[in-house]
Structures are given as structure tokens and as C-alpha cells.
Amino acid sequence: MFIATAHADGISVNKAEARLGEEGYQLSASYDINLTFAAQRALERGIPLYFVGEFRLTRSRWYWLDDEIFQGAQTIKLSYNVLTRQYRISRGTLFQNFASFDDALNMLTRQSSATIPPELIKKDREYTVAARLRLDIEQLPLPLQVNALTGKDWALDSGWYRWVIRPAEITVRGEGKAE
């Protein structure tokens, strides 16, 4: 397990890690999210906010560009239903309702990548892992997109947080299981 921390305005990385499980490596990050006044007001008026969680795994090469081993992104929709006064987090076809904003935000703060097969990662080599969470301003209604492009009120982006991992041991047994 590899753990690291970082800080940025609006959204900041609280903890990031790469963990080896039975199926392979899982990248995950936990964020501190402080919505701006404009974003929170839009949400309370029923405008959904779309966040994109991104992960990258690369291997440095001195003779060429970095080798990208894995890249993954997931869009998460945070919405508020004014009639039922419930918040909803949607990831693809899965969704969950919350009675409070804090509960919904708590669910949004935890992001994980798809599983990376262990055969893509070689033992005793250094890899750079990068994680980022950002508000997708292209999903906002057009009038708000103009404001988002020109103002700080919509600048919700953790920026890329990078850390280095060096797996000590990875073996594959049976049906592609890591140990």
C-alpha cells in the first residue's frame, strides 16, 4: 500500500493510494471538496454538477516519452431534487439518494479506478500514479459555461496529484489472480 497527501483550492487530495488486490492494482483517492458559493447555489436550484475522476499510471523512459500503462476516467453526477429535497449521486446507471448535502458530498469524495491487471505492472520498476477530480464545466447549461470559463467561481479542480510506486512483488497464479 502506498499513501500520499496534497492540497489545492476548491478540491484537494486528502489521501491517494495504489493497492494490490486479488484481481490486480486498484488506484484510489480521497478528496476534500468545498463547493464555491456559485456552484452550491446552482445545485440548490436543481442544476446538476458533473465531476470527472481521473487516474493515470505511467512508466518513465529516458529514451522516449513516458509509457502510459493505464488511463481511466469516471463521470459522477451530483444533483438535487427540489421537490423531494434529496441529493443524488449517479455513476453511470448506478445512483444513490441522500437526505443531506454532507452525506452526498462524502460519497463524492471517494474515487477509485478500474482494476489494473497485474501483468501490466512489472516488479521493481518505478511507476508514476496521477489522480485528479474536477468539475466538468462542459456539462453545465450554456449560460453558466460562459461564467465558468471566465470566473473563479467554477474553478473546481484538484489538479493532477502525482506519486511514485515501486512494486516489490507481483506474481500471477491460476486464472490471472495476483498474489
Structural commentary:
With 179 residues, this protein is mostly beta strands. The chain has helices spanning 37-44, 101-108, 142-150; strands at 2-4, 11-20, 25-33, 49-59, 67-81, 86-91, 94-98, 110-112, 127-135, 161-165, 172-173, 177-178. The chain has a single domain (11-167), classed as Immunoglobulin-like (Sandwich). Helices cover 14% and strands 45% of the residues. Strands 7-6-5-4-9-10 form a six-stranded antiparallel sheet. Strands 1-2-3-8 form a four-stranded antiparallel sheet. Strands 11-12 form a two-stranded antiparallel ribbon.
Give a quick rundown of the structure.
The protein is 14% helix and 45% strand.
Descriptors:
single chain, 179 residues, mainly beta, Immunoglobulin-like, six-stranded antiparallel beta sheet, four-stranded antiparallel beta sheet, elongated
Layout of secondary structure:
Layout: E1 2-4, E2 11-20, E3 25-33, H1 37-44, E4 49-59, E5 67-81, E6 86-91, E7 94-98, H2 101-108, E8 110-112, E9 127-135, H3 142-150, E10 161-165, E11 172-173, E12 177-178
Antiparallel strand pairs: 1-2, 2-3, 3-8, 4-5, 4-9, 5-6, 6-7, 9-10, 11-12
Instruction: State the CATH superfamily name.
Output: Immunoglobulins
- Secondary structural class: mainly beta
The major pleated sheet works out as: 6 strands, antiparallel
Q: Count up the helices.
A: 3
Largest sheet, spatial ordering of strands: 7-6-5-4-9-10
**What percent of residues are in strands?**
35-45%
Percentage of helical residues? Answer: 10-25%
Overall mean pLDDT: 85
Domains, number: 1
CATH fold-type name: Immunoglobulin-like
Shape: elongated
Cα distance, first to last residue? 14 Å
**Spatial extent as radius of gyration:** 18 Å
Helices and strands, in order, run as EEEHEEEEHEEHEEE
Catalogue the unreliable spans: 1-9, 170-179
